[in-house]
Design brief:
The chain has about 120 residues and is of the alpha/beta class. Helix content is about 40%, strand content about 20%. It has helices spanning about 25-40, 50-65, 75-80, 95-105, 115-120; strands at about 10-15, 45, 70-75, 90, 110. The protein has a five-stranded parallel beta sheet. Helix 1 (about 25-40) packs parallel to helix 2. It is globular and about 35 Å long. The termini are far apart. About 35% of the residues are buried.
């Protein structure tokens, strides 16, 4: 008897930019990803901002009924210049702690367009 060894994905961490970028297709694809996550009842873990593409994916997932967890360093959260977190917010001491918490709370990862910070977080 053959057994399916694939693990069910319950939460996906999305890394993406805090800017919308110059291509409207990025916004469209990011919004679509949020809707797909919600439709498939997959939780979203993200960087905890409501700006740019991060805002698009988190709002679309949240509005679709997905659980959303934004993980943000305390300094960024208290600075109040990165927008509000959509869904539940988990504040951590450092950027490094954020990465570890994102890893701990996710079954899979997706990287969308972003800047140097997005690249830094996925490598």
């Amino acid at each position: 008897m053959e057994r399916n060894s694939a693990r069910q994905i319950k939460s996906i961490c999305v890394f993406c930019g805090s800017n919308l970028g110059r291509n409207a297709k990025f916004v469209e694809a990011t919004n679509n990803l949020g809707r797909v996550l919600a439709k498939r009842k997959i939780h979203l873990v993200y960087e905890g901002r409501s700006l740019g593409l991060m805002g698009c994916v988190s709002i679309a997932a949240y509005m679709g009924g997905s659980q959303v967890l934004g993980i943000i360093p305390i300094a960024l959260a208290e600075g109040n210049f990165v927008g509000k977190t959509v869904g539940e917010e988990l504040r951590v001491p450092t950027m490094q702690d954020r990465i570890w918490k994102m890893l701990d709370n996710s079954d899979a990862f997706i990287a969308l367009p972003g800047g140097i910070s997005t690249l830094e977080e996925i490598f």
